[in-house]
Amino acid sequence: MASKLLRAVVLGPPGSGKGTVCERIARSFGLQHLSSGQFLRESLGGGGGECPRGRPVGGRRGPGAGGAPAPGSFDGAAPFSVAVPCTGFPRTLGQAKALDRICELDLVISLNIPFETLKDRLSARWVHPASGRVYNMDFNPPHVQGVDDLTGEPLVQREDDRPEAVAARLRKYKDAAKPVIELYKSRGILHSFSGTETNKIWPYVYTLLSSKIPPVLSDEEN
Q1: Parallel, antiparallel, or unpaired for β 134-136 and 125-127?
Q2: So what's the pLDDT on residue 153?
Q3: Who is most buried in 2, 27, 79, 177, counting CB within 10 A?
Q4: Is residue 189 part of a domain?
Q5: H/E element holding 205?
Q6: CB under 8 Å to 105, separation ≥6 — which residues?
Q7: CA distances from 49 to 39, 46, 137 (A)
């Protein structure tokens, strides 16, 4: 058990790779990664441990559960923490202020990815509805085109991942997230990382987290 509780979230627009970054954080530092969609599903279905306010969440490090956002989820942040997972995923200023009433964040990581990169990533993304498994036709395609690797069931493209919807979706995120980012910047807890590839951003995230908590895997092992 870590001696210090670290409450942190990863902010980023849709398609920025925040889920991938959080999964690597979980592996490298022995933490639980809780996506916003997963949190809502577990809150409704029960199970897991307890965090402040008694909301059910996953406990210490365990298998991740990725997936498309559940209805009403916050498609803009992914939380992680040491020992007790923090259920914070502020996408808007109102959500950030609501989170303040539950817990105080120690660290906020913001992923800044160019618009064109995000547009290409989102337009190439397909999901398996039943499990939430996500595929990208450019760099993480299914073994057989159009079907899920494990079940063989058809993959679908979410309505808001279709090319015509992506631009509006990204503009909406930018407008909503700007005051959130400014809030955490003013508190001195915001750390921003820019780039087009998660593999190139990750070493800087790893170095930052290593200065806060001890890793269980080296950067090369991840």
Answers
A1: antiparallel
A2: 97
A3: 79
A4: yes
A5: helix 198-210
A6: 7, 8, 9, 86, 88, 99, 184, 189
A7: 12, 9, 35
- Angle between helix 93-100 and 163-186 (nearest 10): 40
Q: What is the Cα–Cα distance from 88 to 85, expressed in whole angstroms?
A: 9
Residue 87 is part of which domain span?
Answer: 8-45+83-124+172-211
Q: Where residue 189 sits, what CATH number does that domain have?
A: 3.40.50.300
Q: What is the pTM of this model?
A: 0.72
Tens of pLDDT along 55-107?
Answer: 322 333 333 333 333 333 345 665 554 453 333 368 889 989 988 888 788 89
Ramachandran angles phi, psi of 156, nearest 5°: -130, 155
Run of H or E residues at 77: strand 77-81
The Cα 166–Cα 16 span in angstroms is 13
